[in-house]
Amino acid sequence: MSKTKILFLCGIIFFMAFSCDEEEGVEPEEIPIKIVRGLSVCGDSCYLKNAKYIDTSFVINNQIEFESLIECNSDYELPVIDFSKYTLLAGSKAVGGICPTILSQYVQKYSKNNKIVYEVQIKEGGYAALGSAYYHALIPKIEQQYDIEFIITVESFIKSN
Questions:
Q1: In a structure prediction context, what are the per-residue pLDDT tens digits for the chain, which is 161 residues long?
Q2: Nearest CA to 90 among 75, 68, 112, 111?
Q3: What is the pTM of this model?
Q4: What φ, ψ does residue 112 adopt, rounded to 5°?
Q5: Dihedral sign (CA 96, 100, 103, 108)
Q6: Is the backbone of residue 96 left (phi > 0), alpha (psi -120 to 50) or beta?
Q7: CB burial class (10 A; 0-12, 13-18, 19+) of residue 110?
């Protein structure tokens, strides 16, 4: 067998070995989410402090962080969360139409990359004014080694032609 053929076969084996390894663990695991009753999308009950009209996101792992980041209007009480069992992903997004809605949201875990992705799709409200959309997902407690990525997209209320 010629040297070229041997190198070619070694190259194919090398390529196959690493391409198979790359595909293992690529499929993300869907993480179940819960919505916390009392946390608002529009800011009319409990919401992120100092987050009006800005884009921000937080990974909240304990009661102290929760109390420092969330405030409630006078008619509402701060929700109770068991942070020994759960992590709260929360944020705000500046939008061009007030009272926005959450169209979809999901959380996926990529174990191989130690990464969690929280994706939210928001639709602007119908009243054309600068506003904020607040979003959150309560998920099972996550390990510290995971990086969290927030992907937030906004759909305009007004459809363009």
A1: 555 444 444 444 444 444 444 435 468 999 999 999 989 888 789 999 988 888 999 999 999 999 999 999 988 999 999 999 999 999 999 998 888 999 999 999 999 999 999 999 999 988 888 888 999 999 999 988 899 999 999 998 776 65
A2: 68
A3: 0.80
A4: -65, -35
A5: positive
A6: alpha
A7: middle
Instruction: Read off the tokens for 156.
Output: 């305009």
The structure tokens listed for 110 are 């990529």
Give the tokens for residue 4: 């070229």
Read off the tokens for 11: 């190259």
Tokens read off for 134: 């607040």
Q: Tokens in use for 96? A: 């061009």
